[in-house]
């Protein structure tokens, strides 16, 4: 009886662990690009957006990563998420209120026995091998404390363009923003860049993407359905979704046929779709 139970349990384990078969239909060559959430996301001890987190994500076999991008007082683009540095580093103040020389001395405080520093995008891309084999989504954090908004947008735009041209990343980077003002300014300057709108709802995002002739839409997987993604694809709009961490959530997200999935569970997503 015990032997029979062991055999049944073993067979059940094999079946339950079997990789699901998917038929992907999207605009991304009928495959889904697995992107890390600011590197490895919150699934490891690495601080999000740190060089170590991003490098680990790419070395695991991800197609690329989303990066939170902010701009310093002297127009240096850095990889950092929070509006105030005090939330996760030993500095205080908004990124835009400090110069790069001041910020580059900061350390993340979430790992007490390991030192992780903030990196500029220039530093990051200078140290990533085979850079042009990856895709990057810049989540444009447009915190403008104490500055003229339009002037800030212009400086941010110019900094992004300079970075993209330096590393020849025009075909590898997608710019995500919820600000139609920023997007309009950028597109009037150069319409070749690929923009993803971060909307409050699919309907709002769909209408904005069509109106501004954007590349696509980026949303939480909880706020968009398979049918809505197909509707976007039928109108030549790419779709990037996030908030897919457990294998169950990722399986559901894959079946919606998005073009990109941003995840905190990089290793798990890669196993499912590679």
Structural descriptors:
alpha/beta; TIM Barrel; 10 helices; 9 strands; globular
Level of helix content?
25-40%
Predict the CATH topology.
Answer: TIM Barrel
| CATH-defined architecture | Alpha-Beta Barrel
Largest sheet: 8 strands, parallel, barrel
The shape, in one word, is: globular
Number of strands: 9
Q: Order of SSEs, N→C? A: HEHEEHHEHEHEHEHEHEH
Strand order of the largest sheet: 1-2-4-5-6-7-8-9
In CATH, what is the class?
Alpha Beta
Overall number of domains: 1
Question: For the record, what is the CATH homologous superfamily label?
Answer: Phosphatidylinositol (PI) phosphodiesterase
| Measured distance between first and last alpha carbons | 39 Å
Rg, Å, rounded: 20 Å
Low-confidence stretches: 4-17
Number of helices: 10
Percentage of β-strand residues: 15-25%
Broad structural category: alpha/beta
What do the pLDDT scores average to? 91
Would you spell out the secondary-structure blueprint of this structure?
Blueprint: H1 2-17, E1 33-37, H2 51-59, E2 64-71, E3 77-79, H3 100-103, H4 121-126, E4 135-140, H5 149-167, E5 173-177, H6 180-189, E6 194-197, H7 202-211, E7 216-220, H8 226-234, E8 238-242, H9 247-254, E9 260-263, H10 266-273
Parallel strand pairs: 1-2, 1-9, 2-4, 4-5, 5-6, 6-7, 7-8, 8-9
Antiparallel strand pairs: 2-3
Helix pairs in contact: 5-6, 9-10
Descriptive overview:
Helices cover 36% and strands 16% of the residues. The longest helix has 19 residues, at 149-167. It is built from 10 helices and 9 strands. Mean pLDDT is 91; it is low at 4-17. It has helices spanning 2-17, 51-59, 100-103, 121-126, 149-167, 180-189, 202-211, 226-234, 247-254, 266-273; strands at residues 33-37, 64-71, 77-79, 135-140, 173-177, 194-197, 216-220, 238-242, 260-263. Strand 4 (135-140), helix 5 and strand 5 (173-177) form a beta-alpha-beta unit. An 8-stranded parallel β-barrel has the order 1-2-4-5-6-7-8-9, surrounded by 7 helices. With 274 residues, it is of the alpha/beta class. The relative contact order is 0.15.
């Amino acid at each position: 009886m015990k032997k029979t139970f062991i055999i049944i349990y073993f067979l059940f384990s094999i079946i339950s662990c079997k990789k699901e078969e998917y038929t992907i239909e999207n605009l991304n060559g009928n495959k889904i690009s697995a992107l890390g959430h600011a590197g490895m996301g919150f699934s490891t001890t690495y601080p999000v957006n740190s060089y170590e987190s991003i490098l680990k994500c790419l070395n695991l076999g991800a197609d690329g990563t989303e990066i939170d991008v902010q701009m310093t007082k002297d127009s240096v683009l850095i990889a950092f998420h929070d509006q105030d540095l005090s939330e996760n580093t030993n500095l205080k103040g908004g990124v835009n209120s400090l110069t790069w020389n001041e910020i580059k001395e900061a350390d993340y405080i979430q790992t007490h026995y390991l030192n992780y520093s903030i990196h500029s995008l220039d530093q990051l891309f200078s140290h990533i091998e085979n850079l042009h084999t990856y895709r990057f989504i810049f989540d444009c954090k447009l915190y403008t404390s104490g500055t003229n908004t339009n002037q800030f947008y212009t400086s941010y735009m110019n900094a992004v363009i300079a970075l993209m041209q330096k590393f020849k990343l025009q075909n590898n980077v997608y710019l995500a923003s919820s600000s139609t003002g920023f997007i309009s300014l950028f597109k009037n300057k150069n319409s070749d860049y690929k923009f993803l709108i971060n909307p409050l709802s699919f309907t709002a995002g769909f209408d904005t993407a069509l109106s501004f002739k954007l590349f696509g839409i980026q949303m939480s997987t909880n706020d968009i359905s398979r049918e809505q993604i197909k509707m976007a694809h039928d109108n030549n709009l790419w779709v990037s979704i996030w908030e897919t961490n457990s294998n169950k959530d990722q399986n559901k997200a894959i079946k919606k046929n998005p073009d990109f999935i941003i995840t905190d569970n990089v290793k798990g997503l890669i196993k499912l779709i590679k």
